[in-house]
Design a protein that fits this description.
Elements lengths: L2 E7 L2 E6 L2 E3 L5 E3 L3 E6 L3 E9 L1 H12 L15 H25 L6 E9 L5 E5 L5 E3 L6 E5 L5 H7 L6 H18 L7 E7 L7 E5 L4 H20 L55
Antiparallel strand pairs: 1-2, 1-10, 2-11, 3-4, 5-6, 6-7, 7-8, 8-9, 11-12
């Protein structure tokens, strides 16, 4: 599996992806899931991928080297919306080629993408593209997207990230989100690709391949866990009121025990069955006198 996160803040874009992929516990590999399309001074686009590796690599290949040289590519699309449409068409083309065969083997067509960047003279934009080829765009109310193992790294993004956050703080927030995911999910792993795009720069100026020896990420890993434990210890313990003093609407919902055998609608499973009479003998027919 994988985890990728991308954020759009006022000062720029942040892209972060892990590199672990697996086909079961006996086959764990490393593949990079970030692709950069750059024409310095003209445009920068970054594609992050998650899902079936064969599918996502096919999509990236179609974008980089289309079968028809006359087709649009990330290097000549007129705007970022058309770039997102381009990714969607590539996804549908891969589905056309492989979807039937995957279905024959009961394999899900599983792939998702994050695409962000800027073209000269236009604003920065960030999109999430689904397996059907459709997509949505980030906004000031939803300034980030995640794909892959998203749930572990989501809380810090929801609590901290804002569009007005400085770009380096947004990068720090993404790294903490990734650290939380690494801590809780073994299908996500180092090294990490981190790219920070500065608004209107139209070139890649900040990039890091983060491995186990990266001092800054090691500091985040140790200090984030330590500070969480510190804050946890500083929060007061719960204060309890006697259960008997709770008002009816705030007391536990209780199930009443069954009544004793013979004193209500419930019958004990241990209650002996009443003796049969002669009239209930053979086949339910009464015996002749």
């Amino acid at each position: 599996m994988t985890y990728c996160v991308a954020t759009r803040v006022d000062q720029g874009l942040v892209f972060l992806a892990d590199t672990r992929t697996n086909a079961g516990v006996d086959h764990v590999s490393t593949f990079r899931k970030m692709t950069v399309f750059e024409q310095p001074g003209e445009r920068v686009m970054v594609l992050l991928t998650a899902g079936n590796l064969a599918l996502t690599q096919s999509v990236a290949q179609l974008l980089s080297q289309p079968s028809d040289p006359d087709l649009l590519t990330p290097w000549n699309v007129p705007n970022m919306f058309e770039a997102a449409c381009l990714v969607g068409r590539a996804v549908r083309e891969v589905h056309r080629m492989h979807g039937g065969a995957l279905n024959d083997f009961n394999i899900e067509f599983n792939c998702s993408f994050l695409l962000g960047g800027q073209i000269r003279g236009q604003p920065m934009r960030l999109f999430q593209v689904y397996a059907a080829g459709n997509f949505i765009e980030a906004s000031t109310m939803s300034p980030y997207f995640q794909i892959g193992e998203a749930k572990y790294g989501k809380p810090i993004l929801d609590r901290v990230l804002t569009p007005s956050m400085p770009l380096d703080e947004a990068a720090k927030c993404a790294l903490i989100s990734m650290d939380s995911t690494l801590r809780s999910n073994v299908s996500v792993g180092l090294p990490l690709d981190l790219l920070v795009y500065e608004k209107d720069s139209l070139r890649v100026t900040k990039f890091a391949l983060i491995d186990h020896d990266n001092d800054y990420f090691r500091m985040i890993h140790s200090s984030w866990g330590e500070r969480l434990r510190q804050v946890f210890a500083e929060i007061p313990d719960p204060q309890w009121a006697p259960v008997s003093a709770l008002p009816l609407g705030k007391s536990p919902m209780r199930s009443e025990p069954p009544l004793a055998a013979g004193h209500g609608p419930y019958k004990s499973v241990h209650e002996p069955a009443s003796a049969q009479t002669l009239a209930q003998a053979q086949g339910g027919q009464a015996e002749p006198d």
